[in-house]
């Protein structure tokens, strides 16, 4: 009989987890019984209130730890501060759009630092403990852009492709040690950030909401539907389960068919 809370007693660190996909993953892991460390670069009362609310809702321990994922020392300190890191979800990410010849070098460096290098640093900090305990789950939130490309997103596409490669290398290095590493590759997900973009897209294309979603935002997503943060969270929780113990070094696309084209 399956456990109602199969991750009870585990501790999960989720980067970039006060909203959107990261929060969706944190909620699903907490619902499965995991204690959770939330993270963002801010350190406001709202951040700590969110942790308390989640802890109360799911009856688990939830803490908020501020860390700037563009800084290696912060990435490693985040994992160290968790005490135990059984589950590591590298979700933090940013985007910048510009042609390559106009792409600001500082933006390139920042996107690569947050979207790729942070996962290297947190993984390096988490692996010794996972090895010692003989169990661990690493879930990297990549993107459909980790498997395919779009113009004007050179840094994001390069970082997400790199994150898929890091996932595979990690999986090979820990194979047979009770640790898995996988990447989730979402397409368009209806997050507050994406929701906020819809009015601007409506204005730019002179379209109503339904048309701009269908013909602009979801043009490459054959299902014609956004993925939800709950679906991404559910996928992450599955990858942390015993049922996924032999799933490692791979990508799972949650993209409505985008990468099937």
Key phrases:
single chain; 261 residues; alpha/beta; Rossmann fold; 7 strands
Binned, the helix content reads: 40-55%
Number of domains: 2
Strand segment tally: 7
Residue share in β-strands: 5-15%
Q: In CATH terms, what is the architecture of the largest domain?
A: 3-Layer(aba) Sandwich
The low-confidence runs, each spanning 5 or more residues with pLDDT under 50, are none
What is the fold's blueprint, element by element?
Blueprint: E1 11-14, H1 20-31, E2 35-40, H2 45-58, E3 62-66, H3 72-81, E4 87-90, H4 105-133, E5 136-141, H5 154-174, E6 179-186, H6 192-205, H7 209-217, H8 229-239, E7 251-254
Parallel strand pairs: 1-2, 1-4, 2-3, 4-5, 5-6, 6-7
Commentary on this structure:
This protein is of the alpha/beta class. The protein has two domains: 11-187 and 227-253, Rossmann fold (3-Layer(aba) Sandwich), CATH 3.40.50; 190-226, no CATH class. Helices cover 46% and strands 14% of the residues. The protein has helices at 20-31, 45-58, 72-81, 105-133, 154-174, 192-205, 209-217, 229-239; strands at 11-14, 35-40, 62-66, 87-90, 136-141, 179-186, 251-254. It has a seven-stranded parallel β-sheet, sandwiched between helices. Helix 5 (154-174) links the parallel strand 5 (136-141) and strand 6 (179-186). Helix 3 packs parallel to helix 4, helix 4 (105-133) runs parallel beside helix 5 and helix 6 packs across helix 7 (209-217). The model has no long low-confidence stretch (mean pLDDT 97).
């Amino acid at each position: 009989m399956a456990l109602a809370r199969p991750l009870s007693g585990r501790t999960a660190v989720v980067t970039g987890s006060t909203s959107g996909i990261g929060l969706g993953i944190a909620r699903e892991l907490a619902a499965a019984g995991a204690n959770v460390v939330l993270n963002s670069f801010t350190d406001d009362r709202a951040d700590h209130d969110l942790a308390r609310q989640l802890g109360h809702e799911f009856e688990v321990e939830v803490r908020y730890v501020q860390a700037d994922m563009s800084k290696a020392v912060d990435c490693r300190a985040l994992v160290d501060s968790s005490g135990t890191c059984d589950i590591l979800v590298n979700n933090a990410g940013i985007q910048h759009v510009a042609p390559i010849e106009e792409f600001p070098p500082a933006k390139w460096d920042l996107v690569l630092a947050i979207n790729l290098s942070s996962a290297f640093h947190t993984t390096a900090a988490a692996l010794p403990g996972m090895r010692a305990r003989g169990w661990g789950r690493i879930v990297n939130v990549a993107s459909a852009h980790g498997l395919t490309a779009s113009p004007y997103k050179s840094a994001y596409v390069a970082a997400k492709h790199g994150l898929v490669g890091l996932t595979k290398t990690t999986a090979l290095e820990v194979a047979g040690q009770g640790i898995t590493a996988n990447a989730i590759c979402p397409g368009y997900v209806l997050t507050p950030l994406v929701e906020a973009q819809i009015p601007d897209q409506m204005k730019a294309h002179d379209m109503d909401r339904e048309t701009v979603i269908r013909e602009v935002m979801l043009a490459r997503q054959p299902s014609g539907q956004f993925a939800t943060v709950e679906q991404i969270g559910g996928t992450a929780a599955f990858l942390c389960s015993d049922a996924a113990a032999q799933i490692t070094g791979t990508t799972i696309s949650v993209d409505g068919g985008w990468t099937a084209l």
